[in-house]
Amino acid sequence: MRIRLDHADEYMHSLEEATNFNESMYFNVYDPIAQMGGFFRLGNRANEGYAEMTTCLYLPDGRVAFMFDRPKITTNDAFDAAGMRFDVVKPFESLKVTYSGRAVLLDDPLVMANPRRAFTESPWTEVEATLDYRGLSPMMGGEPVNDDGTALTEDLSGGFARGHYEQHVGARGSIRVGDEEWEIDGYGLRDHSWGPRYWQAPYYYRWLTMNFGDDAGFMISYIASADGGVRMGGVVYEDGAYTHIHQCEIETEWEGNDIYHRRIVAKAKAGDREYEITGEVMSLVPLRNRRVAPDGEQLVTRISEGMTRWTWNGRTGYGLSEYLDQIVDGRPVGAKA
Description:
This protein has one helix spanning 115-121; strands at residues 2-4, 21-31, 36-45, 50-58, 64-69, 80-81, 84-90, 94-106, 124-135, 140-145, 163-177, 180-196, 204-211, 216-224, 230-238, 241-255, 260-270, 273-292, 298-312, 315-328, 331-332. The N and C termini lie far apart (39 Å). The strands form two sheets. It has an eight-stranded antiparallel beta barrel with strand order 2-3-4-5-8-9-11-12. The chain contains one helix and 21 strands. The chain has 337 residues and is an all-beta fold. A hairpin with a 2-residue loop joins strand 20 (315-328) and strand 21 (331-332). The chain folds into two domains: 15-198, AttH-like fold, CATH 2.40.370; 201-337, AttH-like fold (Beta Barrel).
């Protein structure tokens, strides 16, 4: 088996037969001068008849502008739904993100734990975003294929993504929320995934994205399965190159009755070097996904999105700490007592 990644993978893939086939792109950014950032995601689930669109913007005063929608789609021809659009200008080098639409303004982002309450009791505003993303790093990832380049044949319908790659990026443009507008010149990370996806496939995971300017960054991934298995990975971005992380440890300080992550110590080994990065969540939005299992059980997944200030080697950086947990008996399964 080998990993394949071509320029063609920047574009849309053929719609497959799996009911839960998903193709998605995700972009995050933070500008430390404007003290403004967020993320944009579109996931096409054409066989289910809809896309998943998320806009999440962390404002300098602590509020969050948030929108989630499931617009109807019937094809996987483009990332273009519910006012959001992603365009590939030059594969691996330049992409464009635009969003024009409404968002709910959250004084307390934690209210999103109850989406109905958040969307009915919070004020609404208009959002316009135009961001030009440029690749800073090499690419990490791709699609596993046989040694001869042919597709793998095993059933992956219960998985999370077959093809997946990531890249550290810079982003410039503007974001307007209501009457306020910010010029953005920041850094972030983007990814692209395709293949069958259930949000309930991992038992829990920790996905930490970090940028310390245009010359340094990290992505640390820790994925746990219900049977106790763990996959660790990620990359260190230094001197224009990626070094793969082969071991990591993530210590989390939890907070509140709903058990959200607030402080993080991430330790990683890559090559012959060891790294330690500390993080403090500046603002957190809890998101939710629900699915009914074939036996009728209601499955609930929480994805906590924390805009995080990172400290490493005397430098300050920013990025998202994404904690996904299945919720069992009202508790996130990955939270340690």
